[in-house]
Amino acid sequence: MSAQGKKRDWFDLGAAAYDQACPGIYAVPTYVCPICLNPFSVEALDDGRLSKEHVPPQGVGGHELLLTCTSCNNMAGTKLDASAKTKEDVRLAMAGRANRPHRIKATIGGITVNGQLNAKDGSYALTIPRHLNRPGMSEALQRLGRAGASLTVEHERYSELGARISWLRAGYLALVAMEGYKIVLDPAMEIVRTQIQECDERRMLTFVADAQADFPMTIRRVLRVLEPAWHRGCTVQFGPYLVNLPSLGDMTIYERLANNGLSPAVQHTTYEYVGWPITPTFGITRNEAK
Ligand SMILES: [Zn+2]
User: Fold this and answer.
1) Does one domain contain both 125 and 80?
2) DSSP 8-class letter at 90
3) pTM (two decimals)
4) Same domain, 150 and 190
5) Which residues in the chain belong to E strands, given as ranges?
6) Same domain membership, residue 114 and residue 50
């Protein structure tokens, strides 16, 4: 299918799903952005106001999954997804599993230079490429290196909150692609959208947890949490990150997670596998959409 054909297909499906959730609100087929809830008619595909969204973000290996409005899409790209990517790069580099050279700043004997850390199979190699530095730097370093100077490595900075909200956003969108506007219109999701849109301030204490085991990023799944009771809800897993989202109508999940989740007692969580959206269905079948 052509790129435009896919966009059109997703538009039609999303518009049908919205009309099914809220019949008769719009006279013409209308796609409602699941983040900002602004409505778009089909012209928005051609003039670029609606665009395809990667879930999870492209920088961490995501794939196109649904449409969001271009302003929500761009805002996430600059404010959230860049942080998620840098955090992931740092995490892989620290674990010795980076699959590409990782940019760092190295301070050697008082001289700070731009370097690349190659981390593979648990070993590290630091290179100071000439093209990343002022002329003469590498000669200066060679003199210092011989004197046995100490080395400090500083990773690229990222916003921890921004990275976590990027995962929250990806989890929410995966759920929307799978279940449609009953998710978008549920009052329990309002706090999720507020956190995504007002991303400079933390709204809830706990919404993304680290998995107990080191899962590869390729593992993506939507899970229902059965036990413990205070944790009940929906968890969207992206490799090592577990995004906690409310069940329909559950207004207190983030309070419960904040009150119980930091308890030092070892907790056993029981999950039920729900699925993973390869393409959007918005909770309706193909036949109903036509
Ligand atoms: Zn939007």
Assistant:
1) no
2) H
3) 0.89
4) no
5) 31-32, 39-40, 50-55, 63-69, 102-108, 111-120, 123-127, 151-155, 208-210, 220-227, 233-238, 241-245, 270-275
6) no
Claim to verify: residue 198 and residue 64 sit in the same structural domain: yes
Residue 116's domain spans which residues? Answer: 95-155
> Taking ligand 1, which is a single-atom ion, which protein residues have CB atoms under 5 Å away?
33, 35-36, 69, 72
39 pairs with which residues across the strands? 32
Rounded average pLDDT per 10-residue block, the chain, 290 residues = 83 97 96 98 97 96 96 93 92 81 85 85 81 84 72 89 97 98 97 96 91 90 95 96 97 94 72 96 69
Residues 71 and 136 in one domain: no
Other beta carbons within 10 Å of 211: 14
Task: Measure 33 CA to ligand 1 centroid, in angstroms.
Answer: 5
Length of the chain (residues): 290
Q: Are residues 146 and 230 in the same domain?
A: no
Number of domains the chain contains: 2
117 with 79, same domain?
Answer: no
For residues 177 and 147, state if they share a domain.
no
Amino acid at 219: I
CA of residue 166 to ligand 1 center, whole Å: 15
Q: How far is the CA of 200 from the centre of ligand 1 (A)?
A: 18
